[in-house]
Amino acid sequence: xxxxxxxxxxxxxxxxxxxxxxxxxxxxxxxxxxxxxxxxxxxxxxxxxxxxxxxxxxxxxxxxxxxxxxxxxxxxxxxxxxxxxxxxxxxxxxxxxxxxxxxxxxxxxxxxxxxxxxxxxxxxxxxxxxxxxxxxxxxxxxxxxxxxxxxxxxxxxxxxxxxxxxxxxxxxxxxxxxxxxxxxxxxxxxxxxxxxxxxxxxxxxxxxxxxxxxxxxxxxxxxxxxxxxxxxxxxxxxxxxxxxxxxxxxxxxxxxxxxxxxxxxxxxxxxxxxxxxxxxxxxxxxxxxxxxxxxxxxxxxxxxxxxxxxxxxxxxxxxxxxxxxxxxxxxxxxxxxxxxxxxxxxxxxxxxxxxxxxxxxxxxxxxxxxxxxxxxxxxxxxxxxxxxxxxxxxxxxxxxxxxxxxxxxxxxxxxxxxxxxxxxxxxxxxxxxxxxxxxxxxxxxxxxxxxxxxxxxxxxxxxxxxxxxxxxxxxxxxxxxxxxxxxxxxxxxxxxxxxxxxxxxxxxxxxxxxxxxxxxxxxxxxxxxxxxxxxxxxxxxxxxxxxxxxxxxxxxxxxxxxxxxxxxxxxxxxxxxxxxxxxxxxxxxxxxxxxxxxxxxxxxxxxxxxxxxxxxxxxxxxxxxxxxxxxxxxxxxxxxxxxxxxxxxxxxxxxxxx
Length: 658
Known about the structure:
Elements: H1 2-24, H2 26-36, H3 38-59, H4 61-92, H5 94-99, H6 108-118, H7 120-123, H8 128-131, H9 139-168, H10 176-183, H11 187-195, H12 198-232, H13 251-267, H14 270-298, H15 313-332, H16 334-360, E1 366-367, E2 381-385, H17 392-406, E3 409-417, H18 435-447, E4 453-459, H19 462-472, E5 475-481, H20 495-503, E6 507-512, E7 521-525, H21 530-546, E8 549-556, H22 562-578, E9 586-591, H23 595-602, E10 608-612, H24 626-634, E11 638-643, H25 646-657
Parallel strand pairs: 2-3, 2-5, 3-4, 5-6, 7-8, 7-10, 8-9, 10-11
Antiparallel strand pairs: 1-4, 6-11
């Protein structure tokens, strides 16, 4: 859609260009027309202006931005002159001017709706701001600010120009709106002829040239950045993501954009394709509004510098109104829908046939501290991932006890999450936000007289950063906090935790922290298995470190035979013998028809529930097994879920069964 918009603006420039020469150098214009013809003359200027702004964008974002500033300020001055003379004309003959607005909707409300859909391609320019987020300073502050300023100025200027154009023209025998419609893109020039001095028409034509140049400049930049981002994610050929070393611009994406815009402008029926571009923008904006709702539901934890007010009313209205305008387009110009459907179909075909597989193979981008390997690096480690400042002490206590139990190194990490649209090295600017977490971890380790190493990781995805750290530090065990649930239906505990649990090549200690962050009473439901055995070992060290009171438990159905209760007592006795540090251990048979429900209910009387992952998850989507996941989701108590690395589980099974 952006590339089609580029073609439209290039053709618009050519129209204003020859309008200027036709007005002031008619002899030269007629001579050229007689040699090459009017259409070829327009196409020649279209080609030249397209090539010029493609080259300008390759020069660099700073050059492009300065050019855009000059063009925009100049055209606003031109439009201000136009508005001034138009308002003066209206004041001179207010009665005649008001007649131009009667009837206010000469073709009915349907005409207004059609116009809204068709002109959307001219109005939507404010979204270009977001497409160049990588090249904006302080984007979280400046993107919303620039968007609202752009919208406000655009609405004000458009309304004033429309008011003046309709009210100040006084053509014989034609209503003002019909007169303006007759001349299409040069209508503002015809309007200026009626109320501006002789120089005014030249100024307006010059303003038209400036407007189309600034629009072309901005859309070439936006179109190339979209292509660059898609190339980086392997949704287009990887070559699209190439950056010029000297100018720091995606020169390949810019060149391809330039070739496509010139080709379309020279060969295609641009009116139909332009209508399709406007339609694609409407559908895209509908999806943007829908994305706001999806992101709020799936990623509530993301820090947001700006939030849409009156959520979800505004995004729902935005979605419905954009879809309504898009559907109404079919009534006026059905070919736009056919072009759009064909274009989307081609995109889907390419995506599922080629790019989906390639994008799935994209190597995660992680920036890790470079340091020379020392003798200690051969020693396995316990890794603790820190994110929430309020939970650092609780997680560190667990990690310290695990480090002492394993007699290994302790490493605290924190991951700087860089948005995908930003280069990975930009995360260095936000590193200072995570430093206090690691400083606090060092202080706690010093108080407990244990050595600690700290690393700050920068990644486009937190889970990728954690997984890379596990590999680099040869981690045997990972300690991390988690929410215990996810709002999204397609995730168990959230995007980060789900990926870490599925892919981490080490033991996992995942702690959902409840209201109480210091643990004095612990409930440990057990039914045997490698995960429960690891949970017992972890608990042995944790009890010693925190001086906790322990209660072992086993859940049976109230209608179960006595043999089941006896088996439970045997499980608890075996577990008790494994936990050497525990004193005065209690045993408890929990009677409940639901194992998870019984554990969650009994756990309310304790500060901590510790539970091993199920031995055989019923479904691949289940990460820890159905029972641990239900307990973690519904228990108000802090829950520690322990999962032994599958490679270690297989090794144990092999030893037992040969």
